[in-house]
Design brief:
The complex is a heterodimer.
Chain A (H helix, E strand, L loop, with lengths): L2 E3 L3 E5 L4 E8 L6 E6 L6 E6 L3 E5 L2 E6 L4 E6 L8 E7 L10 E2 L3 E6 L1
Parallel strand pairs in A: 2-11
Antiparallel strand pairs in A: 1-3, 3-8, 4-5, 4-9, 6-7, 7-8, 9-10, 9-11
Chain B lengths: L3 E4 L2 E4 L5 E7 L6 E7 L6 E7 L5 E2 L8 E7 L2 E6 L8 E7 L8 E2 L3 E5 L1
Parallel strand pairs in B: 2-11
Antiparallel strand pairs in B: 1-3, 3-8, 4-5, 4-9, 5-6, 7-8, 9-10, 9-11
The chains are: A mainly beta, B mainly beta.
């Protein structure tokens, strides 16, 4: 089967750093994606990892360890607008263009 | 990146009626599109994979006779919720298949409310 786990909720303070973890067990692996979703809106793409290591993009970084089935999303210099749900998604199987399987999402609340 | 247009943004219908949701890829031809559903405070659940010119592939537990998918052209896939019931009220989102090693691009979603 396929299983993707991430914490349900997290709270952090404006200006701080927060790390959202994701563990996965899937049939095949063709990349791990992080999306941000505000309530009532479609997800927006944040980052992508297919090889082990850290990918940095501005205030957001994402890390992947394929041997451990583990990823995290790091958000720096938190802003109030970062309050949203963060979705970890894995592209399994043998195709590098195929469907994504999503975790349950982590709701992040940023407080002043 | 790819642009995906989804219509309508929201729809309210009476129980027992059918609702059609359209998903168009505006700047490239999509042989495959994905349909997801999201209930409140839950994540996206894949419903089916829409294949141009052939039958859709449904995920386990999704009724193919209730959720009709048509992918008649390379730029348009439609999802029809037949005989809708209140429990079908949800957020439905389509996406195109990504380019190799690229993310999916989502439509803006359709909020369906069945009364």
């Amino acid at each position: 089967g396929q299983n993707i786990d991430q914490p349900t909720e997290m709270t952090a303070t404006e200006g701080a750093i927060v790390q959202i973890n994701c563990t996965y067990q899937t049939s095949g692996f063709n990349g791990l994606f992080w999306y941000q979703q505000h309530a009532g809106e479609a997800p927006t793409f944040l980052s992508y990892n297919v090889l082990d290591g850290l990918e940095e993009k501005g205030r957001f970084s994402s890390f992947l360890s394929r041997s451990k089935g583990y990823s995290y999303l790091l958000l720096k210099e938190l802003q109030m607008k970062d309050s949203a749900s963060y979705l970890c998604a894995v592209r399994g199987g043998s195709s590098n263009t195929g469907k994504l399987i999503f975790g349950q999402g982590t709701t992040l609340q940023v407080k002043p | 990146g790819a642009v995906v247009s989804q219509h309508p943004s929201w729809v309210i219908c009476k129980s027992g009626t059918s609702v059609k949701i359209e998903c168009r890829s505006l700047d490239f031809q999509a042989t495959t599109m994905f349909w997801y559903r999201q209930f409140p405070k839950q994540s996206l659940m894949l419903m089916a994979t829409s294949n141009e010119g052939s039958k859709a592939t449904y995920e386990q537990g999704v009724e193919k006779d209730k959720f009709l998918i048509n992918h008649a052209s390379l730029t348009l896939s439609t999802l029809t919720v037949t005989s809708a019931h209140p429990e079908d009220s949800s957020f439905y989102i389509c996406s195109t298949e990504g380019a190799p090693n690229s993310p999916l691009h989502f439509g803006n979603g359709t909020r369906l409310t069945v009364t």
